[in-house]
Write a structure and sequence with these properties.
The complex is a heterodimer.
Chain A: H1 4-7, H2 32-70, E1 80-81, E2 86-87, H3 90-121, H4 124-139, H5 142-156, H6 158-167, H7 193-216, H8 221-229, H9 234-245, H10 247-263, H11 266-271, H12 290-297, H13 303-333
Antiparallel strand pairs in A: 1-2
Helix pairs in contact in A: 2-13, 3-7, 3-10, 4-7, 5-7, 7-10, 8-9, 9-10, 10-13, 12-13
Chain B: H1 2-16, H2 54-77, H3 83-105, H4 108-146, H5 150-153, H6 171-201, H7 205-218, H8 222-236, H9 243-267, H10 271-279, H11 284-295, H12 297-312, H13 316-321, H14 340-350, H15 353-381, H16 390-413
Helix pairs in contact in B: 2-3, 3-4, 4-15, 6-9, 6-12, 6-14, 7-9, 8-9, 9-12, 10-11, 12-15, 14-15
Classes of the chains: A mainly alpha, B mainly alpha.
């Protein structure tokens, strides 16, 4: 302005400078190729949304018959005899949640320790090896875990169950009501929620671990070094810097693992001995999950039972959707929400 | 801290003293009187943080010995028995002994640090031990059937519990897996990549919604993918259980994985490449097709391979949709099929020892396939975005040479036409 002012004619001193220059209109007219491209992209996105909408829709439509018969009692009945119209999701649902909780209780300390070890303690080369191993653990098919659980773990874990029930039987969950109590035969302890939970925990660990590691990597280097500079030990640094910064990752990872554990089918399908009433005694034989119920019953179900199974599937759908939305909301609060490692 | 500082400074001074005597503070007005001391080699060894010092190693070794001995004593003096009990007692005694040993030398925080380090390390060992146990047990139990060639070529139609392992196999499940996974790949890879491109190109509200939906879909229990196809295709539309239905169920399961992996790969493409392309006048689809997708190729391939590895081992969507058969069926449109994981599940679930072995062989084969896919994914993914393989480099070099020759020809024959080069392509 100061440069321009002397050159400007006297009759119009600073007039052109007063208002801001007129805003140019920014438009882009996509060419025909781009129009096809944008259309194709939108088509793909709409298709994907349509698929998940259809999953919910088809389950709901198919479940309508059973729900219209059972009405509200579908949520409060602990039995599964659809052919005499006496069925509900309560027993199987609570047993599903019990399996998932056992799995998470076992996997949480392990994956927390594993992810902290990888991100904070392991030297560089070990770190890379461990990350590969965790990825591999996630890639092992769930059927492998399931058959391993049936053939290897079930027989060998009876001692653990017996130990827990005889020493910690006063904890309500560890109590055993079967005849003979903790001293009962092996069949008291096989096919239990606890054993299935252990197997499922192995499938959950890699998911939780990678989420947690992602969270821990967000602890800024300045705070870490600050803690060290103040004389902190490594654990002191972890406790005062890494864990607070990684809290969203820990909670989110745990919830994601819970969601996965709720939907796990094969281990339950193979190992559990089906029980349609709530079995709070996790060490004792008997339990169930919604997904295993569907897998076991769907192929030779009467049309009405099929509808009831669809209703169970719908319940599982809503349950896992809820858990996962909470998980992703927690994780998204701590980062952009768009990216995540798979 | 102090000895290390001093020795490091001494080493630094020693290295630079030959070239610049007086050191860096020489320029500052107050510092001329006290330059960095010339090299005074000290005998203090440099501390290496992150490595166990000698004493700590001895602590660990001593604690291990103590733990094992205590546990051995427990087994012999009390009624405690069993391998699991031995390990638990040994571990607890080891931790206690280690803490005691460390607390002889160090005080509070250092002891807690040592304890937590041991606990975190053992969590890592526990998880990896479990992985090794799962993989090792499966391979060990399955290898007897896996060595027979007929295991891959014959089907189970003539096999009962008494048949020797040299008769029958899982050829039918192999065919089924190839069909179902093949159908799933053919369906999901184009749709998945197109959706990932959409998510990458648009940052508006709808894209966020689609992303949320995809995330929710990733979390969908796999059995529901099967149940959905069962409810829609088989019950509503009246198709029979077949390889196609199973392939569709696998697609529903696999689609979100492909989308998310592809989106991640596209996200890693540097923005300046897109901008360079746009500034040269390329329309969006050309930027995507000629710049972004080729750059992200290794990431996309990795995502697809990992998606295949995941869907190949998934039995629950197939369980409801493929039916079950013991014959080789090569037609995915008609008749029941079975896939490898489902076959493994059914064989092990039968409980007959000889069939269980076959089931484990099936699972071992699956594991090996997954492992191979995994290694391939690592190799492919090893190329970062934009890094070219030697072949790609040669191709790019050829293209440039061709362009150069074309330019030379154009400028040589008609120098005035160089202005319109942009319009030539």
């Amino acid at each position: 302005m100061s440069v321009l002012a002397p050159q400007a004619p006297a009759e119009a001193p600073v007039e052109p400078m007063t208002g801001p220059p007129e805003r140019r209109e920014l438009t882009s007219v996509p060419g025909s190729g781009d129009r096809v491209f944008i259309g194709l992209m939108r088509l793909g996105a709409v298709g994907v949304v349509a698929v998940i909408a259809m999953v919910g829709l088809f389950l709901a439509v198919r479940a309508a018959q059973a729900i219209s018969v059972a009405k509200f009692s579908f949520l409060t009945t602990q039995a599964w005899e659809p052919d005499i119209h006496h069925f509900g999701i309560l027993g199987v649902g609570v047993n599903t949640i019990l399996i998932a909780l056992v799995a998470v209780v076992i996997s949480l300390p392990v994956s927390l320790g594993l992810s902290l070890f990888i991100s904070e303690i392991a030297p560089q080369r070990t770190k890379r090896l461990l990350v590969t191993m965790v990825d591999l653990m996630a890639a092992v098919p769930s059927v492998v875990y399931a058959i391993w659980g049936l053939e290897f773990l079930e027989g060998r874990s009876i001692g653990i169950s017996r130990f827990l029930s005889s020493w910690f039987g006063w904890v309500p969950f560890f109590h055993v009501t079967a005849p003979g109590g903790a001293g009962g035969g092996e069949t008291t302890f096989t096919a239990s929620t606890f054993i299935v939970g252990m197997v499922v925990s192995l499938m959950v660990i890699p998911i939780q671990c990678s989420m947690m590691r992602e969270g821990f990597s967000q602890a800024p280097i300045g705070e870490r070094e600050g803690a060290y500079a103040l004389g902190s030990t490594r654990w002191g640094m972890i406790r005062s810097v890494v864990l607070p910064f990684g809290r969203a990752g820990i909670i989110g990872g745990t919830m994601l693992g819970l969601g996965r554990a709720l939907g796990e089918t094969l281990a339950v399908y193979l190992i559990i001995s089906p029980e349609f009433a709530i079995n709070w005694h996790i060490l004792q034989s008997g339990g169930h999950s919604i997904s295993a119920l569907i897998a076991l019953r769907a192929s030779d179900a009467s049309p009405f039972e099929t509808s009831a199974l669809m209703a169970a599937g719908l319940a599982l759908f809503l349950l896992t959707l809820g858990v996962n939305f909470i998980a992703s909301a927690i994780v998204a609060r701590s980062r952009s929400g768009a990216d995540s490692d798979l | 801290m102090l000895p290390w500082r001093r020795s490091a400074a001494g080493a630094g001074g020693g290295a630079t003293s030959g070239g610049t005597p007086g050191g860096t503070p020489g320029g500052t007005p107050g510092g001329t009187a006290t330059p960095v001391a010339p090299a005074v080699p000290r005998a203090v060894p440099r501390r290496r943080p992150g490595r166990l010092a000698g004493a700590a190693t001895m602590d660990l070794a001593g604690a291990v010995v103590a733990g094992l001995s205590v546990s051995w004593l427990c087994q012999h003096l009390t009624s405690f028995s069993g391998g699991f009990g031995f390990v638990v007692v040994a571990y607890l005694a080891f931790v206690a002994a280690y803490v005691a040993l460390v607390s002889l030398r160090d005080d509070g925080p250092a002891v807690v640090d040592a304890l937590m380090t041991v606990l975190l390390t053992s969590a890592a060992f526990l998880a990896l031990g479990a992985l090794v146990l799962v993989v090792g047990f499966t391979l060990w139990k399955g290898h007897t059937a896996l060595v027979h060639w007929n295991f891959f070529t014959q089907d189970m139609s003539t096999v009962d519990a008494a048949s020797p392992l040299s008769v029958g196999g899982v050829g039918h499940a192999l065919v089924g897996t190839l069909w179902t996974v093949g159908i799933a790949v053919v369906l999901t890879v184009p749709i998945g990549i197109v959706t990932a491109v959409y998510l990458d190109e648009t940052r508006t509200g709808p894209a966020r919604f689609v992303r949320t939906v995809v995330q929710a879909m990733t979390a969908l229990p796999t059995i529901l993918a099967g149940l959905f196809i069962y409810a829609s295709l088989i019950l509503t539309l009246g198709f029979q259980k077949s390889g196609l239905a199973a392939g569709l169920a696998l697609s529903v399961m696999m689609l979100p994985y492909i989308i998310r992996a592809s989106e991640l790969a596209l996200r890693l493409v540097p923005g300046n490449l897109r901008e360079a392309s746009a500034s040269l006048g390329a329309p969006r689809w050309r930027t995507m097709w000629n710049v972004v997708l080729p750059t992200a190729r290794s990431g996309l391939a990795t995502g697809v391979i990992l998606g295949i590895a995941r869907s190949i081992g998934e039995a629950s969507p197939v369980l409801l949709t493929a039916g079950f058969t013991t014959y080789i069926n090569v037609n995915p449109l008609q008749g029941p099929m079975v896939s490898l994981p489902l076959e493994a599940l059914k064989l092990v679930g039968s409980g007959e020892p000889s069939l269980v072995v076959r089931g484990f062989a099936c699972a071992s084969f699956l594991l090996l396939v997954v492992l191979v896919l995994f290694v391939i994914a690592r190799i492919v993914g090893g190329w970062g975005p934009g890094n070219q393989s030697p072949r790609q480099q040669r191709r790019a070099a050829r293209a440039s040479a061709h362009d150069q020759a074309r330019l030379a020809r154009l400028t040589g024959t008609a120098p005035g036409r160089t202005d319109s080069l942009a319009g030539q392509r």
